Amino acid sequence: MTRSVKGRGDSVSKFLRYLVLVLIALIFVFPIVFMLVSSLKPDLQLLSDTSSLRAFLPIGDVSLNISVRLLSVCRLDGFYLTPFSRRS
Amino acid sequence: MAAPVIILLLIFLIVPFIFAFYFSFTNQRLVSPNPTQVVGLSNFKSLLTVRTFTLSPELNANGQIQRDENGEIVYPSLRSYTRNNPEYPQLDGLREWTSWQSGNNRTFLLASDVVFMRALVNTLLFVVLVAPLQGGLALVLALLINQPLRGINIFRTIYFMPVVISMVVIAILWRFIYDGNNGLLNSLLEQLTFGAFKPVDWLGNPATAMGSLIAMSVWQGVGFHMVIWLSGLQTIPSVLYEAASTEGANTFQKFRFITWPGLRNTAILILIVITIQAFGLFTQVNVMTRGGPLDATQSIVFQAYERGFEKQDIAGGSAISVILFIIVLSISLIQRYLTREKTS
After folding, report:
1. Is the ipTM of this complex over 0.85?
2. Contact A31 B169 (CB under 8 A)
3. Which residues pair with B100 in a beta bridge?
4. CB–CB of B289/B208 below 8 Å?
5. Which chain B residue lies closest to A13 (C-alpha atoms)?
6. Which of A41, B157, B258, B307 could form a disulfide with B316 if both were Cys (CB 3.0 to 4.6 A apart)?
7. Residue A45 phi, psi dihedral angles, 5° rounding
8. Contact across the interface for A47 and B182, Cβ inside 8 Å
9. What is the pLDDT of residue A84?
10. Which of A11, A20, A21 to substitute to test the interface with B, most B CBs within 10 Å?
C-alpha cells in the first residue's frame, strides 16, 4: 500500500523535475531557433512574423537563398579551402 | 621547454602591456606628424579629475534669494566658473556630471571626463549585478542537471549551447529580439499579458538598455559557469549525502552543510573568473548600442577602444587600459584575500 503511494509520488516528482528542465531549456532554445528559422526567411517576412508564433516556424517564403548568396559573396572556398586546393 | 610559451606571452601580452604602460604617459597618437612627447600624468589627470562645487543662489537688490516666474531658485551660470575663470583655475575645463540640492545651494559633481566616469560607473554596476546573478543562476542550473534522470545530457547540452556561439552573433540576434517595434520580446510579453504590456524600445531607452545587456550576457555566459559548478558538485562524495539521509537531513540541510562547503573552492574560482570577464564588457556594447543611449551603456573597454582607434588617441586609450588593469588587479587581490584559506 505505502509502496504504491510512494511510487506515484515519485513519478509526480519526476514529471515536475522534467517540467522545470524543459521550461528552462525553452529560454535557452528560443533565440537560437529564432535565429535558424529567420535565416531561411526574407527580411520583410522576418519582421512581420515576430508578432506571432510564426517567428519560430519555418513557414511562408522559406528558402536557402540567403545562405547560398552569402556563400557566393564570401567566397568561402577562397578563404578556407585554398590550402587544400591545387589552384594557384 | 618553456621557450615557445614564453615567447608567445612576451609578444602578445607582456610587450604590448609595457607599450600601453609607456604610452599612457605620453601624447602618442595613432597617426601623427609630430614626435611623441612624454607628458607625465596628464592623461590620467584628464580622465580621473573629479571635484565638487557648490553654487549659492543669485541674490537680488534687497539681498533676498532670486526666483524665476516658476518659483525656482536662480543660480549663476556654472559655465562662468568652469570656463577660463581666473579665480577658479582648478575648475577650468570641468563638466557637470551630476548635481543635487543642498538647502538653498546647488552642489555639482564636476568631472574632467564625464563619459569616462559614466563608463566606470556602468562597468562597476555591470560587474556587481552580473557576478552574483550569473554565478547564482549557474549554480541553480548545475544542481538541476546534476539529477540522475534519463536524458539529462540533452538538457546539459541545451543549457550550454549559447556559450559556443560567438558573442557577436548572439548580440546581433538579441538586437532583433530587443527591437522596439517588431521585437520578439515585446510581442512575447504582449501576448503573455493579453495586450496589457506596452512595447518598450529595450536598447533605445536609457533606463532599460543596461538591464537588457545584463540579461543577454547572463543568458550567454551562464552555461559555462554551470559546467564548472557541475564539476565541483561531482567531486563531492555521495557517501556524505547517504550519511546525511540516514541522519534525517532534509534537502536544504544537505545543501547547506554538504554541498555548499564542498563547493568552496569552485565558488572562489567562479567569483573571480566572472568578475574579470565582466570588467571586460565590450562586444555587447560595440555591436548593440555603441555606448548609447545617452551613455547609458558606456563601458571602460569600449571607451579604451573608441579613444584609441576611433579618435586615434592611443595615449588616452592606453591610460584607460592601465586604469582598468589596476582596478581588476586590486579587486582580484581583495577577493583572494577575503576568500583565503584560514589556517588557525
Report:
1. no
2. no
3. B107
4. no
5. B149
6. B307
7. -70, -35
8. yes
9. 54
10. A21
User: How far out from the chain centre does Cα B47 lie?
Assistant: 18
Write down the pLDDT at residue A78: 61
- Compare CB distances from A34 to B141, B161, B184 and report the shortest one's residue: B184
B110 band by pLDDT with thresholds 50, 70 and 90 = confident
Q: Residue length, chain B?
A: 344
Q: How far is A59 from chain B (nearest CA, A)?
A: 17
Q: Pick the residue with more confidence: B140 or B87?
A: B140
Extract the C-alpha cell encoding B197: 504590456
Give the pLDDT mean for B123-136. 92
CA–CA separation, B60 and B206 (whole Å): 39
Query: Mind telling me how many Å the CA of B209 is from chain A's nearest CA?
Result: 19
| Whether B223 contacts chain A with CB within 8 A | yes
Provide the percentage of residues in chain B whose pLDDT is more than 70: 99
Q: Decide if B173 and A34 are in contact by the 8 Å CB cutoff.
A: yes
Measure the CA–CA gap between B218 and B136, rounded to whole angstroms: 10
Of these ranges, A6-10, A66-70, B157-161, the one predicted with the greatest mean pLDDT is: B157-161
Mutate to test the interface with B, among A34, A35, A37, A45 (most CBs of B within 10 A): A35
Length of chain A: 88
Burial annotation B224-259 (CB, 10 A radius, 16+ → b, else e):
bbbbbbbebbeeeeeeeeeebeeeebeeeeeeeebb
Residue B214 CA to residue A29 CA, distance in Å, equals: 18
The whole-angstrom distance between B255's CA and the closest CA on chain A is: 18
The three cell numbers of residue B158 are 541545451
pLDDT digits (tens, 9 = 90+) for B242-284: 888 888 888 888 888 888 888 888 898 899 899 999 998 898 8
Banded pLDDT at B185 (limits 50, 70, 90): confident
Chain centroid to Cα B210, Å, comes to: 9
Per-residue DSSP letters for B97-113? EEEEEETTEEEEEEES-
List B residues 170-209 in contact with A (Cβ-Cβ < 8 A): 170, 173-174, 176-177, 179, 182-184, 187
